[in-house]
């Protein structure tokens, strides 16, 4: 026989006995002093061990060394796209990483960029759509490269076109971000009452997104490594958001988080699309032009993988030529 709750104990309570003073007053006083000293010690331990509130978390924890300076993360759907197309995507990321194989002033290949690939189906999403893989893959990349400085997520329907541009200079450099980020700007266009912070400085930004005509875009964004990044990804991947059945899954979940959680908005910058997320067609956003760091085939997925592969051919030729000449 199974019980929903433990069976009750026997209902025969002991008779009430008034408390008596068993300890002399002096002994009670000493115990009080010991108890207070113990509490003071625990408080000291807490103050030493608690998170410092800074970007990298616990006091005394070594911040990321910046090796590698950036990791490019891409999620591939091997059941949807052909082997030839995905090989071109992999080649694009690997060659870009190899172009930035060492940090200036460093001997050898220390600090080279890295390319990180995950596949749809690699992680347990607890029934959520496969597009949520991008969030888990970012978290996995931070675990694999705990000393990296930045993680750049780039959709499989995108190609890096300008190998000369580096994420840490082109996007995340504080002085550059000060001029790039949109302040007092609606988080979800066109008229969200929640806007980016007017006083935010580039040095305090931990994640950079763009917008298209539909809202925030999750196809290309940059995240700075640190304790806040882990908090952000854990929040975004929270079970309540995965189970809510948003129309656009992780994208609409992100828009909800940004508008309702100031701790996220306080670290977020929105930049123009062509900074990291230009589109192959201007129907739904800013169109790619020569010199932009990347191009996304944003609309082909709605038609089918064959459309993406056909549209990608000219861009594959372009980036290969650009990489050879760089």
From TrEMBL:
It comes from the Eukaryota. One of its GO terms (biological process) is protein N-linked glycosylation. One of its GO terms (molecular function) is alpha-1,6-mannosyltransferase activity. One of its GO terms (cellular component) is mannan polymerase complex. Residues 1-22 are annotated as: Disordered. Pfam families: Glyco_transf_34 (PF05637). Keywords: Glycosyltransferase, Transferase. PANTHER family: ALPHA-1,6-MANNOSYLTRANSFERASE MNN11-RELATED. Belongs to the glycosyltransferase 34 family. This is Glycosyltransferase family 34 protein. It comes from Trichocladium antarcticum. The lineage of its organism: Eukaryota, Fungi, Dikarya, Ascomycota, Pezizomycotina.
